[in-house]
């Protein structure tokens, strides 16, 4: 096996300045403000280390602990010693405990065919609790869905997403499961506007497969959490609509629910079963008040919480730079059990807490770069207030979810083909009209000139 430092999934090289942190993809340095020999702690909470606020601060030592697992079947189906001609994770056989093999306590890439119609296996990063936190197993699990910029590796997957969560010191005792948004793997689907969005079924099939691989000795199914940014926030909403009864809590950041299918048709009431799953799930939503880039969830939450008791709280929190602040208003609605409380945390925008955005008039969208790494934003404290009862949580012996989107893909291809033909015809007609109008404006010639027209 090769480490993630050498893996082709996300190739890495040391920063040419500090040599400690991983350089951004296609860059020589880890961040714009990196200065030689000024690294201090690996938490990245002290700007005196000479790095930019958005520096991922992923060390070579950490990435060399992330191993690319080539296992495509559940480990209890085939011993690791038989995989790939005898290769095993970190050169050790996993120990047998109950129905599954324990995986080595190291971060790794996992692969799984989460949709039978997909062309390739889904790929997902699994980061275990830090070694000093191993005594607290079984541990909570955080499912993380990243944003649109990381689709098909347009942007560096290890920068601007999962790295911000890993910087939060209050989350070190958790497992992190972070799928890569690749269009050929079944983790994404097309929405009604033919745009790529996270597939709630594909993601859940992949997530539960990873849970089974880890086993009940390592993960606590009563503490399964989901969070995501921008496109990933919409993905968390959609996951909550269908599988919210298995989640302990969810935190979408900078994104809005699209209400797919018949979950909440226009000018009609929401689906009752969906509404029950959603309203029984604790939600904490973060958004910039003027952000329309990923939609705005405020109106939906107000409607769904209509006539519920509401309270408001204001706070001033640290920004991207320690000497700059962000104003946050939190609106809270409380339901009687089995209903759950919801919180809408609105930051006053545009955010002027980072010099990098000064020339742009402030940041209107990327609120997760504050919420995820800084404990004072309350993410960890709120998450761990919630857990599922053992009687109503996801179970390791539950039926395996099998996703086959073959028919949906055929319908999508037919729709896309039809619209491509219509678009091509409209383009031809438009071109002909333009040529006609252009010719109509030309003066009539009694004789052709010598040069070609």
Give structural notes:
- The chain is an alpha/beta fold and 453 residues long.
- It has nine helices and 15 strands.
- The longest helix has 36 residues, at 406-441.
- The chain is globular, with a radius of gyration of 25 Å.
- The model is unreliable at 41-46, 67-105 and 427-453 (pLDDT under 50).
Summarize the structure.
The protein is 21% helix and 18% strand.
Write the layout of secondary structure elements.
Blueprint: H1 60-63, E1 67-68, E2 96-97, E3 100-101, E4 108-112, E5 122-127, E6 139-145, H2 162-166, E7 175-179, E8 188-190, E9 196-198, H3 200-214, E10 219-229, H4 231-243, E11 249-253, H5 272-279, E12 283-288, H6 298-304, E13 310-318, E14 325-333, E15 342-347, H7 368-371, H8 379-383, H9 406-441
Parallel strand pairs: 1-4, 6-7, 6-10, 10-11, 11-12, 12-15
Antiparallel strand pairs: 2-3, 4-5, 5-7, 8-9, 13-14, 14-15
Instruction: Specify the overall morphology.
Output: globular
Largest sheet: 11 strands, mixed
Percent of residues in helical segments?
A: 10-25%
Helix/strand order, N-terminal first = HEEEEEEHEEEHEHEHEHEEEHHH
What are the segments in which pLDDT stays under 50 over at least 5 consecutive residues?
A: 41-46, 67-105, 427-453
**What does the radius of gyration come to?**
25 Å
Cα-to-Cα separation, first versus last residue: 66 Å
Assembly annotation: single chain
Strand order of the biggest β-sheet:
1-4-5-7-6-10-11-12-15-14-13
Number of strand segments: 15
């Amino acid at each position: 096996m090769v480490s993630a430092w050498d893996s082709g999934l996300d190739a890495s090289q040391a920063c040419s300045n500090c040599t400690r942190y991983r350089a951004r993809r296609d860059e020589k340095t880890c961040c714009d403000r990196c200065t030689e020999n000024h690294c201090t702690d690996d938490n990245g909470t002290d700007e005196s280390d000479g790095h930019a606020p958005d520096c991922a601060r992923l060390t070579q030592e950490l990435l060399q602990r992330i191993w690319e697992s080539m296992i495509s079947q559940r480990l209890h189906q085939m011993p690791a010693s038989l995989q790939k001609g005898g290769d095993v994770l970190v050169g050790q056989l996993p120990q047998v405990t109950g129905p599954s093999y324990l995986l080595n306590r190291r971060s790794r890439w996992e692969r799984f065919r989460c949709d039978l119609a997909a062309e390739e296996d889904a790929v997902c990063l699994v980061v275990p609790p830090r070694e000093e936190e191993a005594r607290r197993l079984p541990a909570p699990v955080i499912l993380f869905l990243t944003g649109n910029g990381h689709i098909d590796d347009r942007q560096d997957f290890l920068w601007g997403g999962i790295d911000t969560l890993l910087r939060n010191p209050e989350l070190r005792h958790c497992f992190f499961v972070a799928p890569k948004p690749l269009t050929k793997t079944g983790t994404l689907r097309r929405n009604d506007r033919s745009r790529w969005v996270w597939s709630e079924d594909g993601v859940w099939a992949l997530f539960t497969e990873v849970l089974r691989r880890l086993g009940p000795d390592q993960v606590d199914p009563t503490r399964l959490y989901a969070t995501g940014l921008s496109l990933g926030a919409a993905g968390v909403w959609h996951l909550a609509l269908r599988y919210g009864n298995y989640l302990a809590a969810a935190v979408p950041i900078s994104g809005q629910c699209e209400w797919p299918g018949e979950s909440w048709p226009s000018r009609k009431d929401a689906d009752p079963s969906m509404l029950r799953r959603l309203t029984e799930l604790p939600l904490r939503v973060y958004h910039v008040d003027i952000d329309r880039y990923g939609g705005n969830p405020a109106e939906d939450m107000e409607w769904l919480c209509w006539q519920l008791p509401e309270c408001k709280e204001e706070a001033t929190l640290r920004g991207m730079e320690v000497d700059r602040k962000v104003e946050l208003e939190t609106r809270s609605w409380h339901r009687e059990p089995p209903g759950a409380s919801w919180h809408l945390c609105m930051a006053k925008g545009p955010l002027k807490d980072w010099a990098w955005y000064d020339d742009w008039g402030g940041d209107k969208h990327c609120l997760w770069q504050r919420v995820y790494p800084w404990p004072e934003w309350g993410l960890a404290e709120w998450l761990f207030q919630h857990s599922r009862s053992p009687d109503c949580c996801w179970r390791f012996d539950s039926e395996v979810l099998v996703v086959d989107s073959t028919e949906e893909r055929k319908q999508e291809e037919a729709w896309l083909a039809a619209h491509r033909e219509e678009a091509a015809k409209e383009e031809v007609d438009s071109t002909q009209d333009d040529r006609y109008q252009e010719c109509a404006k030309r003066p009539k010639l009694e004789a052709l000139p010598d040069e070609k027209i």
